[in-house]
Amino acid sequence: MANIEKRTSKDGKLTYRVKIRLKGFPVQSATFERLTDAKKWIQQTESAIREGRHFKIAEAKRHTLTDLIDRYCRDVLPSKKSAKDQVQQLGWWKAEIGSYALSDVTPSLLAECRDKLGREITVRKKPRSPASVVRYMAALSHTFTIAVKEWGWLEDSPMRKVTKPKESRGRVRFLSDDERICLLKICKESSSLYLYPVVVLALSTGMRRGEIMGLTWGVVDLKQGRAILHETKNGERRAVAITGHALEVLKEINKVRRIDCNLLFPAKGNLPQKPVDLRTPWETAVKKAELHDFHFHDLRHSAASYLAMNGASLAEIAEVLGHKTLQMVKRYAHLSEGHTARVVASMNDKIFGGM
Questions:
Q1: Which of 90, 179, 258, 341 lies deepest, with the highest CB count within 10 Å?
Q2: pLDDT exceeding 90 applies to what percent of the chain?
Q3: What is the pLDDT of residue 237?
Q4: What angle do CA 317, 142, 128 make, to 5 degrees?
């Protein structure tokens, strides 16, 4: 039910004070200079309240994008493993359009920002990659999702209508046999005690750099030949098989392990609870081995490629690497074509062999 109160100020100015009272909803009020505007507002507001739209629209006008990002960083991000990266990504959005009310953050505005992201030159003096732009968009998209589902600040996410840039196909740079032999020899001769074991683990298990450097003796079982990763990129616990030469290397390290630290690869000196920094020894080894366009993460690609070339199915590769879906390992499909051909040939022999 709406009530219109006619008011006259000291200077003779006439205004109309409106209050809407609907059972089960907070009182809504507004002031207008014209009676026609007051009646129009009553009609629109009552309709929006009954349809469940009014309060979300009001919240979207009341809060800026900065308000949204600040609350998200305070209440949601601390529980996420990717918090550090997302703080930086969301900071970019704040700097660009943080002053906008949420109601004014439209798909077209976000599309302009997307295009600007793609044009910007990064610290590596290269344009930001499509994959990087997608991550920036994903960070903001989740803040909108929380605002819609949990906080009631928006009726829908404007990011839903913004097209993501097409990401390039994942790189498949892996070591040839000669490259692998050369790199391992150089790593073994490195002044760093841990470079060779770390590279061997990466090649034999496909673990990520962070997973390897975070290994502790508490999760490594040398008798069973495995490690249990409790903290992984996809958030799920994963068992990693450690066999053959990699297992022997770890057994040797175990004989001379430090008693003041549980890490497999601790830093020197007074920082035993931090993993060793292998950046310089690794870059030196890559340079000496004359490896072109090769990064540490490519050791993981190498492990996956070797699995594919030795007959592992995509599902088996995904399980070893810890991927939830097969999408990420499809880049190795062409390397297992021989295995696929054998499977198809075996099937054909069974169903057509007697013809």
A1: 90
A2: 46
A3: 84
A4: 70
Is the dihedral angle over the CA atoms 213, 215, 217, 220 positive or is it negative?
negative
Q: What is the CA radius of gyration of the chain?
A: 30
Q: Which of these, 136, 197, 142, 172, lies nearest to 306 by C-alpha position?
A: 172
CATH of the domain at 81: 1.10.150
Angle in degrees, 0-180, between the axes of helices 54-62 and 35-50, rounded to the nearest 10: 110
Alpha-helical runs (H) found in the chain: 35-50, 54-62, 65-75, 83-97, 107-119, 130-146, 177-188, 195-205, 209-213, 244-255, 279-288, 298-309, 314-321, 337-352
Tell me, letter by letter, the H, E, C secondary structure of 161-227.
HCCCCCCCCCCCCCCCHHHHHHHHHHHHCCCCCCHHHHHHHHHHHCCCHHHHHCCECCCEECCCCEE
From residue 303, how far is each of 41, 158, 221 by CA, in Å? 65, 41, 21
Residue 105 near residue 96, CB atoms below 8 Å: no
Q: Are 311 and 218 in contact (CB under 8 A)?
A: no
Chain position carrying tokens 């770890």: 250
Looking at the fold, whether 182 and 96 belong to one and the same domain comes out as: no
Q: pLDDT of 106-150, one tens digit each?
A: 999 999 999 999 999 888 788 888 889 999 999 999 999 999 899
Q: Report d(CA 7, CA 31) in Å as an integer.
A: 10
| Structure tokens that stand for 239 in this block | 């068992």
Residue whose C-alpha is closest to residue 140's, from 100, 86, 103, 99? 86
Name the token pair of 55: 């309060």
- Residue pair 248/254 in contact (Cβ under 8 Å)? The answer is no
Give the number of domains in the chain: 3
Q: What is the CATH number of the domain that holds 308?
A: 1.10.443.10
Task: Calculate mean pLDDT across residues 54-68.
Answer: 79
Residues 199 and 319 in one domain: yes
Query: What is the model's pLDDT at position 200?
Result: 95
CB 226 within 8 A of CB 242: yes
Residues whose CB falls within 8 Å of the CB of residue 81, separated by 6 or more in sequence, listed in order: 231, 233, 235
Say yes or no: 184 and 314 in one domain. yes
